[in-house]
Amino acid sequence: MVERVACAVPDDFKAFVPILVRQILATIGSVEISEWDVATAAAANDIERLEAILRFMQGIRSVLGEYLHIIIPTLVKLTDGLINSDPDNRRSVALSISPPTGSPQSRVAIGTVETISILMQSSEINPNMMIELTVKSSRPLPARVAQPFLRILGGQTKPNKEVGAVMIGCLCIAIRQLGASRWISFYNDTTRETILEWQATVGIVEPTQSYSDTDDPVGMQPNLMLPISVYDEVVNELSFSISDIWNFSDDNLSGSGYSLGRTSDNSLSQLADNKPAPPIQPTSHQSSHKVNMSNLQRAWDVSNRSTREDWEEWFRRFSVQLLREAPSPALRACAELAQTYQPLARELFAAAFVCCWAELTDQYRANLRYSLEVCFSADASLEILTLLLNLAEFTEHIDTKSKIPELGIDISILAELALRCRAYARALHYKEREYTTSPLTCVEKLIDINKKLDLPEAAAGVLRAAKIEIIRQGGTFVSLQSYEAANPLAYSVITGPNHDSSGIAGGQSWAGQINMESWLAKLGAWAEAVSLYEEKLMQNPRDVSSILGCLQCYDARGDWQQALDLAEQSWGVLSADSATETSLAPSLAARNESEAAANYEVALKFCAQSAWRLGKWEELDTYSSLLVQNQQESGQLNAQQTKADDYDGAFYKSILHIHRGEFAEANQFIDSARKAMDGRFTALLAESYKRAYPSLVAAQNLSELEEIINFRQFEDRRNVEVEQLHGLKATSGEKRERQHLLDVWRQRLDGCRVDAEVHASILAVR
Q: Which residue has the higher pLDDT, 127 or 660?
């Protein structure tokens, strides 16, 4: 009954194990083995109790793990007592074999050694592990078994054939737990001599059946072999396997203090010469598998991939196939589980990729690199792009001595990928590396990234570094008094194309390549930036970048009406219909059309923002509708979708419907806005709470829009009820609800970051 309870609820039963262990030890200690020579009822009772206790310990071995250091030495002492039952040498026999074959002592001794073997196996870190590269356990249990057993086997009274056989099997378990290196160093010579001497004493000269008489608790094959052969096979198996592995990673193990595989130990050399390695090596340390490159290429093929669902399926298949083809047996073992549990495939993606990448030929690597670059620029989810960005970082951290080829993706592509994933710290790392080869394309991005990382001094330092370089090339300057006062590190700023083409590091020139107004906008010097943009517009009214720059500055400064006036004047330039020219090549025309559509969308967002802040609801309706229409025409929405998946379009539409009292439609667009920000919000929050804060504010704004809808609906219901009953407007209930909502909002605003931009967006909604 106790055994069944222990097996059924082992965790709950552990509280009672100390009491049980004391009872077991007391029972074993009360046995008088020396009295068993006389066939009495007491002796029979002792034998029956011992056999029952041994079976009981085998059954509850799962709960005895913490007490094996007490139990196993007691069982070893019991074995010694069963074999040396005449400690006073009353029989006066110079050399004897005990206990007699088939006697109760022999039966109990076999059961005791088998119990020790089972308990030792239950204490292994991994019972299925046949080879140990290092000593996995610091517990002294294997040595506390091996040393007494060797003394018993080599003593004056030797165990009989059956008992000696199971003792040698128990020693094989001790070998595996101690590790081949330690066993060979301390025990191998003595053990072989002891086993050979015991074999000669008990008369074992031919293979015997004794090893198949038990349940094979030690993992030996039940074939007919000499005990010394069984022992040699186990030692050879471990020593040869470790030698192969150490030779494979010789650089990593040099100086470790072990020399297995290159040892001068005569006994090990004798074993290697006399006994070949077993033909079947254990699966846990088998040699690496070969990679089927054709199967992998079919999995990473990116043709016919367009929608986000296509890319999700591509990544799922590719990540699982990497595990299936991985050279590492451990990774291959995870493939089946990863097939049904996708998070595992995502977690192991980088490791499996690197394993397979090292085995690919140059042609396959180039093809895979192309597929990754296509995915980087595709409309894949931010989660997939973040995993690929993590892969690039993982390969970058690999030791150069590992002989694994680099990924070889251009650093500018990785920088843009990091910006798409809002991983600004990694984007800064890649952009700083890119700056050494092409600085003129990196200044604006470096300023922007440092600002987003809340590093204004670093952003000003980038501007100053650009200034120093342009001074060297003869550039001209413009004085920016307001910005210099707030940012003394920046000093004056460079403008104008009046500088030479003497070139800079990397063979590039700053001549004609300076977009100072854009740099200033990134730094937040809106007044100076807008003045430069307006100068450019006076020279070229059709300069789209200057128009967008002015709109951005007006939006940041709160000049809403100026933004609407400029957009109205420049609407023909911003329209995507005039983006392409028939004289252009098809690929260039398509790219220009895409850029024009993106610029048109940015202008629409600025216009919708300005119309909302000014309360111009008709213009807001126009711009938000155009924003949704532009998204649909640019292919970012499926034909089946009726609501905007773009956050800005859905957000402005929800505000417009709330203003009109169309609350059901407003709720639909609020849901659409949440879905649109879901991927971005998740990726940012995984990167950093601080960087995800603007998205958190946007989510709070959507929640407050719902609170406004609830209040307005309550207000309408209250008015209807009061008018039906009294013909009067409700006032007190509305005031209470309004005051409660205002109190909640004030408390919420007190917990927000003290930032003008954050507070402005929240107060605009309210």
A: 660
Of 611, 533, 621, residue with least CA distance to 568: 611
In a domain, 680, yes or no: yes
Per-residue pLDDT tens over the stretch 302-328: 887 778 888 888 888 888 888 888 888
Residue 70 sits in the same domain as residue 207: yes
* Residue in 157, 162, 186, 158 with CA at minimum distance from that of residue 174: 186
Between CA 174 and CA 140 the distance in angstroms is 10
Beta pairing, strands 96-97 & 157-158: parallel
Q: Number of folded domains in the chain?
A: 3
In the structure encoding, which two tokens stand for residue 455, read together?
Answer: 């590093």
495: which strand partners?
476
Cα 328 from Cα 330, distance rounded (Å) = 5
Integer Cα distance of 237 and 234 in angstroms: 5
CA gap 189, 463 in Å, rounded:
75
CA distance 236 to 272: 7
Place of tokens 């026999």: 93
What is the signed CA dihedral for 251, 255, 256, 261, rounded to 10 degrees? 70
The full length of the chain comes to 766
Token readout for 585 is: 């090549």
Q: Domain end: 344, 378, 409, which one? A: 409
Domain assignment present for residue 219? The answer is: yes
The answer for 651, left when phi > 0, alpha when psi is -120 to 50, beta otherwise, is alpha
Short-list 137, 106, 114, 129, CA closest to 61: 114
Question: Cis ω on the peptide bond leading into residue 586 (within 30° of 0)?
Answer: no
Are 246 and 316 found together in one domain?
no
SS3 state at 492:
coil
The model carries a pTM of 0.47
- Looking up tokens 């995502």 gives 346
Average pLDDT over residues 47-66: 88
d(CA 97, CA 84) in angstroms, rounded, equals 9
Choose one of 363, 393, 409: the last residue of a domain. 409
Give per-residue pLDDT as tens, 108-137.
Answer: 889 999 999 998 887 654 433 333 333 334
568-578 in b/e form (b: 16+ CB < 10 A) is eebeebbebee
C-alpha 611/C-alpha 662 separation (Å) is 19
Q: Domain range spanning residue 299?
A: 286-409
Count the neighbouring beta carbons within 10 Å of the beta carbon of residue 683.
23
